[in-house]
Write a structure and sequence with these properties.
Elements lengths: L14 H11 L4 H8 L3 H8 L7 H11 L3 H5 L12
Length: about 90
Amino acid sequence: MSEFRPARKRVEVSVGESVRILRELQELSQSQLSECTGIPQAAISAIENDRVNLGVERAKVLARALNCHPAVLVFPGWETQLERAA
């Protein structure tokens, strides 16, 4: 099992789409996520529709509620070369 092939990227997602996807996977409505985070539902909608930037502080709050690392939300399409990762 020393050889592996990384999965091919099938679709590009925006920051807002990554928030929406994770929220839906957790079966949360925007209102429920708003209650968990203290972020107004209108702001969550604007983030998911890429009308406003997520921002680091909001990413931290949303990541806690969505049980993920903030980088998953902020950098959804990030790729790194294994040789360079340290």
